[in-house]
Each structure stands twice: as structure tokens, then as C-alpha cells.
């Protein structure tokens, strides 16, 4: 297990699109060593399911494939203040209760649409500031990690490390109508 | 034993010593070794070898654990350096952390430092403009500081000399207040920058928007290839160190060149404690260093000494070099050492949105950063209620983004569909400040640093002239944006920002004609100790509003040329 954790962390560090079976995430240990915050394996799994709801696996890799929730936790642990960290953990706990109240099934087994409706409802609904903060941070960091993942930056919107050129007056294709001044 | 000692002294004796390996120290090293002098370069930090010691240079964004962001613990532990625009995960290892070299802020001052071989030349913003006589004649005309002991004609050939070697890209714009140089092809202005340039030209006399001149090799000449440097690849990841040598740094350029001469000895981990003055001989004989690894105190000797420790640290060294001849600091007969410290005013920026031009975009990245608006206030005559003026950076970019909303599969798909948005423009001010006696650095009487050297007290603040200048910048640029048809103009007057983040601190050991009111003469030579030269930011009599590094380079090459010719004549 330790070696697999190490591999997983390595995959995170190199931004890898390494595929790991999602059931690994349900293990008895958390996959990530955190310095400032403590979360349970169940909470980590729930966060992974939330991230997967935000960025689901389609014909292309999803949050679990890309380990996006681990980035959320890394950022929360290292880059956020105590107040945000506490709100996030509290909000995560509240989410867990909300899920249990709504259905007896584990969140991961809910249909995607139902998971999305629940999460989107947090933003607009009458929920605690902690739950809202949890959702904002989870979404923000999940999306950041996705759009800055090796997969996204090599396959979707390509990042050039060495452009080698700076061109100006490049016509936009297809040309837009009536846009020139 | 006696022989051993003699050998030891011999081993520690050079023709020249250079204190510091940053942008000016690197030039001193290149010039001195090139003229055949055995030269010791002392660097207080670690070695950074070109390419080898750029650990992040080829990393992709996803390879940074926090995608560039500095962890909160680091930011909380280092509030000063964390305020620097370039202190991120990809370059944090080139910045001094707050605790590594503490100083006392009598008034808030963010002192940004790079203690390693190459110093801040690895990190600089690479903007390089010549000064003109509108700058060198400024103090005399406007009645502040003291008259510069030189004029443009004295430094012009040396600008040419350093520009050719360093590689400066720009256009010959024919603007008297911003003299043309020896340029490699300039980087182009983009569609909107070009529109604004034409607009300003048609509407205002003596206002110009030009392509920013910068120390990038747009097209290499043989002299650059000979340095092992090639064309800038427009990565614009410069602060990581450039494996192509696409921009000028000591590490990529002057230091390897000096190394090739066989005359260079580079000694990292060497904090200079003081310059040794020999009362009998009536001159400086060497420097005393502390090895930061062993804490051992060691003396090195040389016939001439160049002090290039960076503006404030040069002041620190000079102030701490006390002898019976110089009880108040080295060469400080005038009592002005440490005083008349000034900086550049970076206290406002303006952004706006642009209608139109939606049929055009750009591709790749611009190393020059965009355009530059040379100073247009109080140039030919005094025409405002404040002294001097400001230059401005100016850039336009085409925004892009996705329209992704919500979460889930559709959201994910939309994230990958990036569409072009409006053009935006931005400008930031770079103002000249007036050196004043009340803006000073001095040694603390009791508190010392880790090497037993007194801590510096820094007392530098804005004044009324700065505030008036900022107001004028905001008015003028806003008006220029408005008449250009830019929309949603948003002014950011940075509130509560301390001086220092311009990283253009200057003065303290100013040049001047009169030894009674200045530390250095027209050759950057200490009036009272002719074998010691100061050619970094400490020498500056006034600040102009142009970026200063190119001028430090030119001063250094000129000063070395003079020093060596004086040595050869037997005068030093």
C-alpha cells in the first residue's frame, strides 16, 4: 500500500494522468499526508466523489482519474488560513449529513444528475456559510487542477512551454462580423 | 611558518576584487578579467551556474505542487518578499527570505534581495532604456541633490559598448529624451498597442508609445553566440533562469565570459564585512569577509576594489568600513554616505477595456511586455506643480476564457472551449523621486546580523512631490485612455504600499563634482580613496525615471576602463 501511495503522490506531483482504480480511494487510510488539517478516509472519499461530480469521467479522464481532490486537499492544507480550513472541514461534514438525509445510498452511487443538483443547490440554497465555503473551495481548486493538469494542458487547451514566436495582428479565425474599429 | 603565512597572503592577493556578482558586479568581473587582471569576485550567497542551477526552468505548470502559489506558512513567515510580484513557486529559491538578513524599518520599506551568484540579474524585469541629458542635467536645472559630474556624451559610448554585448532589443525611435542605442530588432507592438501609439502621436506633442526596449536577444549577433546564448524563445519564464540565455544575466553572459579568460576566481558564501583601509599606505588594501559556512573571518587583498553589492548593501559595507582615517564610514568625509537614497514611484496603475479590434489577436508571448511611454512631463520646461516626471509601461492583450458554468459533463466540456474575449489595456507608473537627506540608511548601534555585522536601519518614505506626480499620472493616462476610446477605466492607486517593491533603490554614495557633498567622483571613484570604485545603484545622484540597470552596466565598464588605465599609468 505504501508504495502505491508513493506512486499516487508522485503522479500528483508530476501532474500525471495516471489512472488508479477508484476503489483505492475507499481504503482504510487517507491517500495524502496533510500537515495542518485532519480528514478521515470517508471524508476524503466524499471529496473525491464531489470532485468527480464537478469534473466527471466522460470519454476523457475525470477527477478521480486525475487525482483532482488530492490537489484540493494539498491547497487547502498549504495555502489557506485556519478559518477557511475549518469552514471547509465543517462544510464537508455538513455535506455528509445532507447526503445521508436525502438518501440512504452512498453519494457515489447516486445518478450524476442528482449529485449535481445537490451540489449546485448549495450555492443558491439556504445553507450554512461553511457548507457554501466548502463548495466554493472544492469547485475552485478542482477546476484549477483540471485546467492545469497535464491532460488538459496537452490535450485540450495546449500550453506551450517554448512558443518560439510572438506574432501580432493575427487574424481571428473564423473572422467575426463587424468587429473592427 | 613565516613562509606559510607569506604563501597564504599570496594566495589571498589579487589584482582586483569585485564585491558582488549581480548585474554590475558581473560587468566589473568581465571587464577586469578581460584586461588581464586576476580578479576575485565575492558573492555572499550560493553559486548559481547557468542552466545547471535553474531547477524549475523547464517545468510545466502542473509540475508545481501548488501551481505556482506560495504556501501560506511561507507567506506569513516572509511578509516582505511575499509582496514582490515575482515571488512564486517557480522562482522563490532566488529570493532572500525575510529572516535570512533582517533589517530595521524606521519607516516601512520592502527590501527585495537576491543573494546568489548573479544576484537579481536572474530576476530583473529586463527593461533597458538609456538616460539622456534631460536626466543628467535634472538636479542642476531643478535644484535638488547635486549636479551629476557627467553628461550624456560621457556615458553614450559606454551604453553602446554594453548594449552590443548584453543584447538589447528595441527600435530607433528618434526621441531626444530617450536616446536610441545599439539595438537588435525590437519586438512588435500588437494591434491595440499600435492603435494607441498612433492615437497618442496624433493627439499630443512629445508623447510617444514605443515598443519597450529590453535585454532580450531578438536576433543573435555573433557576440551573443560566442557567449553560448541564442535567440530568445519567447517563453517569458525569465525569473526561473533562461536555458537559452535569451535574456541578459550575469550567469548567462558576463560571468562565464570572465571565467573563460582564466583570470576569474569566484568565491560564493562570502559576506563582505568591510573594506580594509591601510592608514600607512593611505589606501584600501583589501576586504574582510566572513565565510558563511565556517563563520571564519578571512582577508583578501588587491590593488583595486569594485563595490557592486547592490545599492543598499554597498551602503552597508561602506558604512561598516571604519578606520582611523574614515571613522564615519569608508570615504565618508562629506557625511552624506547613506543619505539621499531614492527609488522609483510605482504607486499607481490603470486598466481599461477596449471596444473593437476583435478581428485581431496575438500568438505567443512578448518578452518586451508591450509598450513604453517615455517621460513627457517637465522635459523641455517645467510645466506642472511637481518636479520631474514619470514613464509608464503600457500593454494590451486579448483576453480569452471559457463560458463554462455549473458543474458536470457539460461544464467540463465547456472548460476546454476557450473563446476570445475583449482586448484590455494596462499601464503602470514609474516615477522619478527626489533624493533627500532625510531618506537614509544607517547602521544600528546594537543589533547585529548572523555574521556579526550591524543591522541596517532603513528610513525611506514618499513625499509631497510623489503624491502630486501620482495624481498627474492618473489624470494624464486616464485622459489618454479616454480620448483613445477605452472603456471602464479603472485606477488602482496602491494604498499603503511601502517603497522598495520597485526594486530600484538608488543612492547613498552619490557621484558629484565636490568631495564635500558627494562620495564618488565622475569615474565612480571614491573621492578620498582612489583605488575603490562604486558602480552599482549606490552611486546614483538622481534616479531619472528610466530603469536603472543599463546605466549601472555602462558606468561599470567605463569605470573599469578608467581604473585600469590609471593602474597602468602607475596612479593606482
CATH class of the largest domain in chain B, please?
Alpha Beta
Question: What percentage of residues of chain B falls in helices of 4 or more residues?
Answer: 10-25%
- What is the molecular shape of chain A? globular
The count of strands of chain B amounts to 23
Radius of gyration of chain B (Å): 24 Å
Most strands sheet of chain A: none
Question: Can you give the mean pLDDT of chain A?
Answer: 85
CATH fold name of the largest domain in chain B, please? Answer: FAD/NAD(P)-binding domain
Structural category of chain A: mainly alpha
Question: Termini separation of chain A (Å)?
Answer: 62 Å
State the major sheet of chain B: 8 strands, mixed
Strand percent estimate of chain B: 15-25%
Helicity level of chain A? 55-70%
Description:
- The complex is a heterodimer of chains A (181) and B (572).
- Chain A is mainly α and 181 residues long.
- Chain A has two domains: 1-26; 31-156, no CATH class.
- Chain A contains eight helices and one strand.
- Chain B is α/β, with parallel strands linked by helices and 572 residues long.
- Chain B has two domains: 12-170 and 248-343 and 435-459 and 500-572, FAD/NAD(P)-binding domain (3-Layer(bba) Sandwich); 174-211 and 344-432 and 462-498, no CATH class.
- Chain B contains 14 helices and 23 strands.
- Chain B has helices at residues 2-11, 23-34, 72-77, 79-82, 133-136, 138-142, 152-166, 191-203, 222-226, 250-260, 311-320, 409-415, 464-483, 549-568, and strands at 13-19, 39-42, 104-105, 168-169, 183-184, 210-211, 264-267, 270-278, 283-291, 297-307, 339-342, 344-345, 348-354, 360-364, 371-373, 390-401, 419-432, 440-448, 454-459, 487-493, 506-508, 525-526, 529-534.
- In chain B, the strands form five sheets. In chain B, strands 1, 2, 7, 8, 9, 10, 22 and 23 form an eight-stranded mixed beta sheet that branches. In chain B, strands 6, 12, 13, 15, 16, 17 and 20 form a seven-stranded antiparallel beta sheet that branches.
- In chain B, a hairpin with a 5-residue loop joins strand 9 and strand 10.
- In chain B, helix 2 (23-34) runs parallel beside helix 10, helix 2 (23-34) runs parallel beside helix 14 and helix 7 crosses helix 14 (549-568).
- Chain B is globular.
- The chains are: A mainly alpha (181), B alpha/beta (572).
- Chains A and B meet through helix 4, helix 6, helix 7, helix 8 and strand 1 of A and helix 8, strand 14 and helix 12 of B.
- Strand 1 of chain A pairs antiparallel with strand 14 of chain B, so a sheet runs across the interface.
- Chain B: Its cofactor is FAD.
- Chain B: Keywords: FAD, Flavoprotein, Oxidoreductase.
- Chain B: Belongs to the GMC oxidoreductase family.
- Chain B: This is GMC family oxidoreductase.
- Chain B: Residues 225-321 form the Glucose-methanol-choline oxidoreductase N-terminal domain.
